[in-house]
Amino acid sequence: MKKSACLLLPVVLGLFVTLAIPQTAGHHFPTPPEPLDPKATAKAPATPSRHIDLEQVQREADDLARTAQTIPSDVARVRKGMMPKDVIEKLKQIEKLSKRLRTELNP
């Protein structure tokens, strides 16, 4: 029994030491050397910006504003106990239009 405990103790201690050492050696690749030709470091031309259809954006913004103006009266009806049947669809449409406008206008 003492012999097996003496053999097991170094194995357990080795396991604890191995698990206690943090694994800091990550996969770090060396940085490549600078090119000999300085012209090779010139950056590629910037990607052309997307074409924004400003008329379509304006129509969507107007539609968003018109739909949003109807929401306060719908909420007032909800407070009176009447749920307008299209209020949820209006809110979904507002969300959809807002997201589309945000995507179009965000560079």
How does the SSE layout of this entry go?
Layout: H1 2-20, H2 54-79, H3 87-105
Helix pairs in contact: 2-3
Strand content: under 5%
Distinct helical segment count: 3
Which structural class best describes the helix and strand composition?
A: mainly alpha
The largest sheet, given as strand count, sense and whether it forms a barrel, is: none
Q: Please tell me how large the radius of gyration is.
A: 33 Å
Give the terminus-to-terminus CA distance: 73 Å
State the low-pLDDT regions, or none: none
Using brief descriptors, characterize the structure shown:
107 residues; mainly alpha; 0% strand
Write structural notes for this entry.
The longest helix is centred in the middle third of the chain and has 26 residues, at 54-79. The termini are far apart. With 107 residues, the chain is an all-alpha fold. It is built from three helices and no strands. The model has no long low-confidence stretch (mean pLDDT 80). Helix 2 runs antiparallel to helix 3 (87-105). It has helices at residues 2-20, 54-79, 87-105. It has a domain at 54-105.
